[in-house]
């Protein structure tokens, strides 16, 4: 198992050596090339991944044929279409590697078995799920109530290591802005 993942797990909660062995046995290291899709619309997502190296985006294509980025994932973050994963329904999303990347992958069967076998791991995941839900709610509220300048400022503050790794058009999509609006906001922020 990746030393990065072991460190992450140990910092996230109390895990016994038996827990780490269960996690190692339930996981698989997967590599993805830049531009490779781990999920396409219509597939049923049957994995959860922990990013060891690189970056990913989860996005949908709207009726307007525009990409709408719902989340990014970089090192020490999790990625999946959790709706498809939990419901066993076809995904409406895509997951794409934005860089050459590596992730620790758990199949649905192994994930569910691990949660049942390791109460300590389950507690870690429950805390992460709660934090993820809260972050998602805050982002929705920000996108519907904050002006573009504030959304951009929050993004740069909250994701300082992500900002320079992804194209600006993707940041605009994530913030619910047009490219032109993001360019104007960035120019104003640089002058300010």
Automatic annotation (TrEMBL):
Pfam families: cNMP_binding. Residues 15-123 form the Cyclic nucleotide-binding domain. This is Cyclic nucleotide-binding domain-containing protein. It comes from Mucilaginibacter pedocola.
């Amino acid at each position: 198992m990746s030393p990065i993942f072991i460190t992450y797990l140990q910092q996230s909660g109390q895990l016994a050596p038996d827990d780490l062995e269960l996690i190692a046995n339930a996981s698989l290291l997967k590599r993805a090339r830049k531009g490779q899709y781990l999920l396409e619309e219509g597939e049923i997502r049957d994995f959860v991944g922990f990013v060891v190296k690189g970056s990913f985006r989860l996005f949908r294509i709207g009726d307007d044929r525009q990409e709408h980025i719902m989340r990014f994932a970089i090192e020490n973050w999790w990625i999946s279409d959790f709706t498809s994963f939990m419901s066993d329904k076809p995904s409406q999303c895509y997951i794409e590697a934005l860089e050459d990347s590596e992730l620790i992958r758990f199949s649905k069967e192994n994930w569910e078995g691990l949660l049942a076998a390791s109460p300590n791991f389950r507690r870690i995941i429950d805390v992460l799920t709660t934090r993820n839900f809260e972050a998602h709610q805050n982002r929705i509220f920000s996108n519907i109530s904050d002006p573009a300048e504030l959304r951009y400022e929050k993004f740069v503050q909250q994701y300082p290591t992500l900002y320079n790794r992804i194209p600006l058009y993707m940041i605009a999509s994530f913030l619910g802005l047009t490219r032109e609006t993001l360019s104007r906001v960035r120019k104003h922020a640089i002058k300010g």
